[in-house]
Design brief:
alpha/beta, 10 helices, 296 residues, 6 strands
């Protein structure tokens, strides 16, 4: 009953968006709470087929798969759970992509301390983090996702948020090279890309047919930042920092550290030799000396 109720809700979305078929595309969702049912796979495939007939163009899988989702026996449902394979096979048959968000950025699985680059995010949204006593490790979830991609080569997958590999584009290149059925998108990754502009530019050129523009939410003011990063060579800091960017924590942290370093250097500069350049090496108190300016 739940599956058919969800189908009816999404059917209404498809009908509504038919008014602008060239501007909107609806991705259907599925509920996995009855994954233990014998007919779970066949019913899910039926919902997918009906949704496509009504205009849906893809399937969206949320991050609860592999993290919070449990079956009726209380076991965590892994990303590569074999009970989900009929769904991936149905998507291949229907020729629709699967947009999948697995896990979280790797710092969300690390201890929340001054060495965690998402420390500010942890202060603002502590529930985003995944302590090891409650969740599998980052590598566990990512390996499950890789296995699922590899074992379903006929299904097209869109690995959301660059698979959390935007900070290691060499690794992402190997990922895409080994999985020709996988694409990716840049939602919430503008911070990671912005701090390696030359490497990111090369990656975008080399894999231009495998990368999509993506964004978690619509906020008009934030698009200026994306256009500035993607379409210009401007390396000036972004001010003000858009409020809803997932990378806000990272950008704000760097900005705060740089501003503190400059303020401290200016005070010493004013009190000392004003003809000498600013000395930033002793400026930040947020990190131990060996982790100060190297991280900026």
């Amino acid at each position: 009953r739940d599956l058919h109720k969800e189908y009816r809700r999404q059917r209404q979305m498809c009908i509504r968006d038919r008014n602008y078929p060239r501007r909107f595309g609806v991705f259907v969702n599925l509920k996995f709470n009855n994954i233990n049912d014998n007919d779970f796979g066949s019913k899910s495939a039926e919902i997918l087929e009906n949704a496509v007939n009504e205009g849906a163009i893809g399937l969206k899988i949320y991050k609860n798969l592999g993290l919070d989702l449990k079956d009726s026996k209380g076991n965590r449902v892994k990303v590569d759970d074999k009970r989900l394979y009929p769904i991936w096979e149905a998507c291949a048959k229907l020729n629709i992509p699967v947009l999948i968000h697995s896990g979280e950025p790797s710092p969300f699985f690390d201890p929340v301390d001054k060495f965690n680059e998402r420390f500010l995010h942890a202060r603002q949204k502590p529930k985003s983090f995944r302590p090891p006593e409650k969740y599998p490790s980052f590598d566990t979830v990512m390996n499950e996702q890789y296995n699922m991609f590899k074992n379903n080569p006929k299904t097209i997958f869109i690995n959301a948020h660059m698979g959390w590999m935007a900070n290691d584009l060499d690794k992402l290149e190997k990922h895409l090279d080994s999985l020709p059925n996988v694409y990716t998108e840049i939602g919430a990754m503008i911070g990671e890309l912005g701090r390696q502009p030359r490497r990111a530019r090369k990656f975008f050129i080399d894999y231009q047919d495998r990368i999509m523009f993506g964004k978690d939410s619509y906020k008009k003011s934030e698009f200026d930042v994306y256009f500035r990063v993607l379409e210009t060579v401007d390396e000036e800091p972004v001010d003000p920092i858009p409020a809803q960017l997932v990378s806000k924590a990272e950008l704000a942290e760097i900005e705060l550290r740089v501003q503190e370093a400059i303020r401290g250097a200016r005070k010493r500069h004013t009190a000392g030799d004003q003809d000498s350049p600013l000395d930033l090496s002793r400026s930040s108190s947020l990190y131990p000396r060996e982790n100060k300016m190297e991280a900026i």
